[in-house]
């Protein structure tokens, strides 16, 4: 700590040192932790790597894909947000490569507004996801849609965060 | 049972004034568009300034044991829940007449009661009762109306509501709705944390609640048949939405639409033969259809690529109002039921008008009006598109007119829980209705019972 302060003082003005200090200290701390735990961290990695080799990369990829099964939406729209393009492309390609796999798209809305309109919004969202998957090669017969509107929220609150998490399409493989 | 919010002092002042302008107030009474619904734990959150003081004296009882039912208690709760009447507390009553000859009008004038109800309940046999009631104008010292009702034990409460209806109509000129029923959806969490959805039918005062359907999957969108004998509703019990029609008396039901995609928003035509419903079919585009319940003939009424849903019939059955977001946001439209009819926009005020429900005379459309992240109940006049906001909640939804058109029941939130409330069609009287457990929502007011 003393040495790092000295380095900073010689390298820059006091004001810069004051600004940087909070940034510098954690880096030093990390470096110290890395150094101190270098042996145990390395051995753990080796053992983990050995375990991974028996699992095929495709299967790992599939497993990762199977954990990313929710797409979220902005309020009152069914537009696919850019951050979900890659995820949906991967699911679409997976479906194209596995034509016997069936996927059910469950559309949901947040609690605001009227219930049957929200059924419509949920259906529109499920259909939007369906179109993207089909563009990536998924077959229409592999996909079914259902809209639950606001009837099956995952979050019970009435705030922006709860609403954001409830506006979604869930991908349910069967 | 109910609580009037205003202070006694203000009421007392108002009463004195009323006496001096009695004729004006009596006339104004006929104009007041508010009618009652008394449910479990009804609280008047925003009462009418001119709530009329009325004394409903405990009925005389002739029979074995304690009285079979406190008729006066039910009648007083009915009238009070309407917000139009302020029943006198029983403890304030100096005398308890049960016959006309026992009434001392001066005594009731001193208590500031404008009207007086007295009566008797007699046990004729174990299951035969006779209720007699009389309604008096205290200031004039004359009888306004009186009837004798005969009923079995199971229908005593019905008889009380019937008396409330007659008193209400006599004093306001508007048919009472105390004998009607409401349907609604409740949601509970079971001990294993799974959800339980129920379709409930109860008397308009919340009593006599009965489970009509129960499912671990969502139930929604109940709709009464015009004869009050059947309910249509949406159930997800099969893993997707389907529309069912259930006969209340027998419990038998039929799945009338379980097509691919959305099956939603059922609404019986005024003659009960057709069911309007929303279908998305394969393409995922929601449109209004009509289904002939006897021939199963399906007709598509709207074709727009937007969401068209939430149909409600005009009283003559010749047009349907519905919600569409074809212009961007949800707005109300009307389309004729004849082939080739084109839809016309009805609501223009604001960016969000959904769940239209027509008043029984077809002259007003109740809507969910959304603005700046709040959702409230409003009424739109289809003749000129004018909108009036009636409620002040944040997440109000599902308006439904009482069959006399004077009141709208709707769903709102309180402390994160779904509760039912009602508002007079002129927005002046609001009542909040707390249910026993769980979330309740989607109230729909049933039609007048048919003899």
Walk me through this protein's architecture:
The complex is a heterodimer of chains A (174) and B (451). With 174 residues, chain A is of the alpha+beta class. Chain A has two domains: 2-52, no CATH class; 57-173, 2-Layer Sandwich (60s Ribosomal Protein L30, Chain: A), CATH 3.30.1330.60. Chain A has helices spanning 2-11, 14-36, 38-52, 57-65, 85-97, 115-135, 160-166; strands at 70-72, 103-108, 143-149, 168-173. In chain A, helix 6 (115-135) links the parallel strand 2 and strand 3. By secondary structure, chain B is mainly beta. In chain B, helix 1 crosses helix 2 and helix 3 (71-81) crosses helix 5. The interface between A and B is medium-sized, with 26 and 36 residues.
Describe the structure in brief.
With 174 residues, chain A is of the alpha+beta class.
What percentage of the residues of chain B does DSSP assign to strands (E)? 35-45%
User: How many E-type strands of chain A?
Assistant: 4
Poorly predicted regions of chain B: 1-41
Mean pLDDT level of chain A: 77
Number of contiguous helices of chain A: 7
Overall shape of chain B: it is globular
- Tell me the Rg of chain A in angstroms: 24 Å
Number of beta strands of chain B? 31
User: What is the C-level CATH assignment of the largest domain in chain A?
Assistant: Alpha Beta
- How far do the termini of chain B sit from each other? 30 Å
Which terms would index this structure?
heterodimer, A: 174 residues, alpha+beta, 60s Ribosomal Protein L30, Chain: A, disordered N terminus, B: 451 residues, Rossmann fold, Neuraminidase, 2 domains, 6-stranded mixed beta sheet, 31 strands, 43% strand, globular
């Amino acid at each position: 700590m003393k040495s790092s302060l000295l380095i900073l003082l010689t390298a820059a003005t006091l004001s810069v040192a004051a600004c940087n200090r909070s940034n510098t200290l954690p880096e030093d701390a990390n470096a110290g932790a890395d150094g101190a735990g270098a042996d145990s961290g390395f051995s753990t990695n080796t053992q983990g790597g050995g375990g991974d080799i028996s699992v095929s990369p495709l299967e790992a990829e599939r497993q990762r894909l199977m954990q990313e099964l929710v797409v979220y939406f902005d309020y009152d729209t069914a537009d696919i947000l850019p951050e979900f393009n890659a995820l949906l492309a991967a699911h679409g390609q997976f479906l194209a490569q596995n034509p016997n796999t069936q996927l059910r798209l469950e559309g949901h809305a947040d609690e605001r507004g009227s219930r049957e309109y929200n059924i419509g919004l949920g259906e529109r969202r499920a259909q939007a996801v369906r179109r993207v998957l089909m563009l990536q090669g998924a077959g229409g017969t592999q996909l079914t849609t259902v809209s639950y509107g606001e009837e099956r929220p995952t979050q019970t609150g009435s705030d922006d965060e709860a609403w954001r998490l409830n506006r979604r399409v869930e991908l349910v493989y069967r | 049972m109910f609580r009037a919010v205003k202070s006694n002092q203000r009421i007392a002042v108002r009463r004195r004034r009323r006496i001096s302008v009695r004729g004006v107030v009596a006339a104004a009474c006929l104009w007041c568009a508010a009618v009652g619904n008394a449910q479990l734990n009804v609280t008047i959150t925003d009462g009418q300034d001119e709530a009329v003081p009325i004394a409903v004296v405990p009925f005389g009882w002739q029979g074995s044991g304690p009285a079979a039912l406190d008729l006066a208690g039910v009648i007083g709760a009915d009238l009070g829940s309407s917000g139009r009447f302020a029943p006198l507390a029983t403890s304030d009553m100096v005398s308890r007449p049960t016959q006309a000859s026992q009434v001392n009008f001066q005594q009731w004038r001193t208590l500031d009661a404008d009207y007086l109800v007295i009566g008797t309940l007699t046990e004729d046999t174990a299951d035969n009762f006779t209720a007699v009631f009389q309604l008096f104008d205290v200031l004039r010292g004359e009888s306004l109306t009186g009837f004798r009702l005969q009923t079995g034990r199971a229908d005593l409460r019905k008889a009380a509501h019937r008396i409330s209806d007659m008193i209400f109509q006599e004093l306001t000129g508007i048919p009472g709705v105390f004998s009607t029923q409401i349907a609604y959806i409740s949601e509970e969490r079971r001990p294993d944390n799974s959800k339980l959805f129920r379709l409930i039918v109860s008397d308009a005062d919340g009593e006599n609640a009965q489970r009509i359907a129960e499912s671990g999957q969502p139930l929604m969108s109940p709709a009464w048949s015009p004869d009050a004998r059947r309910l249509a509703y949406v159930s997800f019990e099969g893993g997707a939405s389907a529309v069912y029609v259930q006969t209340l008396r027998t419990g038998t039901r039929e799945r009338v639409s379980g097509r691919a995609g959305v099956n939603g928003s059922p609404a019986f035509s005024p003659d009960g033969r057709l069911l309007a419903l929303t279908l998305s079919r394969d393409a995922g585009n929601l449109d209004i259809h009509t289904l002939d319940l006897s021939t199963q003939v399906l007709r598509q009424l709207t074709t727009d690529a937007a969401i068209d849903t939430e149909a409600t019939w005009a009283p003559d059955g010749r047009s349907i109002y519905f919600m569409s977001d074809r212009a961007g946001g949800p707005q109300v439209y009307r389309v004729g039921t004849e082939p080739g009819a084109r839809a016309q926009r009805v609501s223009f005020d604001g960016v969000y008008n959904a769940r239209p429900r027509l008043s029984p005379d077809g002259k007003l459309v109740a809507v969910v009006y959304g603005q700046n992240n709040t959702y409230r109940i409003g009424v739109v006049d289809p003749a000129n598109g004018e909108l009036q906001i009636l409620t002040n909640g944040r997440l109000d939804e599902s308006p439904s007119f009482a069959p006399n058109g004077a009141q709208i029941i709707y769903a709102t939130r309180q402390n994160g829980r779904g509760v039912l409330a009602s508002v007079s069609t002129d927005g002046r009287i609001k009542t909040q209705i707390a249910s026993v457990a769980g979330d309740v929502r989607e109230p729909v007011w049933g039609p007048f019972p048919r003899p």
